[in-house]
Amino acid sequence: MEGNKSSSGAVETIDVHQAKDLLDDSGYTYIDVRTTEEFNNGHVDVKNILNIPYMFSTPEGRVKNPQFLEQVMSACNKDDKLIVGCQSGVRSLHASVVLLESEFKHIKNMGGGYAAWVESGLSVKKTKSEL
């Protein structure tokens, strides 16, 4: 095995309260890696938020977004402070590993994801889709 950091042990996971504090006060941006549909149904209520899906829902199931890294790199630079979150903390962990392996320096995974955020009674927003 080469000396690259491919283990998820390199990812720092924080809880939703730590995430909220960092997002409120420390210049962090929240990257919600859930699907656009999930995001529109409700997301964390913070000032700096991006929805860049790590996976897409297809009729065959979920598939990895082939442009995920490219989309993050067009919206953020490698020195930005980023908190990555999803529904329960699994997709965000995988996305965090990808970002760290791509030399992003300040990545934190939000453990428990949006479900834990809601369970903790923290503020959420819903995006109404116009049909």
Describe the structure.
GO terms for molecular function: catalytic activity. It comes from Aquilegia coerulea (Rocky mountain columbine). Residues 24-126 form the Rhodanese domain. This protein has helices at 16-25, 36-41, 68-75, 90-101, 113-119; strands at residues 12-14, 29-32, 43-44, 49-51, 55-58, 61-64, 81-85, 106-110, 124-125. It is an alpha/beta fold. Strand 5 (55-58) and strand 6 (61-64) form a beta hairpin. The radius of gyration is 14 Å and the shape is globular. The termini are far apart.
Outline type? globular
Percent in strands: 15-25%
Order of helices and strands: EHEHEEEEHEHEHE
Task: From the 3D structure, determine the CATH topology.
Answer: Oxidized Rhodanese, domain 1
Number of individual domains: 1
What topology, given as strand order, has the largest sheet? Answer: 1-8-7-2-4
What is the CATH-assigned architecture? 3-Layer(aba) Sandwich
Low-pLDDT regions? 1-7
- Helix percentage range: 25-40%
CATH superfamily: Rhodanese-like domain
Gyration radius, in Å: 14 Å
Report the span from N to C terminus.
51 Å
Specify the oligomeric state. Answer: single chain
Structural class by secondary-structure content: alpha/beta
Mean pLDDT: 91
* Helix segment tally: 5
Largest sheet: 5 strands, parallel
List the helices and strands and how they pair.
Blueprint: E1 12-14, H1 16-25, E2 29-32, H2 36-41, E3 43-44, E4 49-51, E5 55-58, E6 61-64, H3 68-75, E7 81-85, H4 90-101, E8 106-110, H5 113-119, E9 124-125
Parallel strand pairs: 1-8, 2-4, 2-7, 7-8
Antiparallel strand pairs: 3-9, 5-6
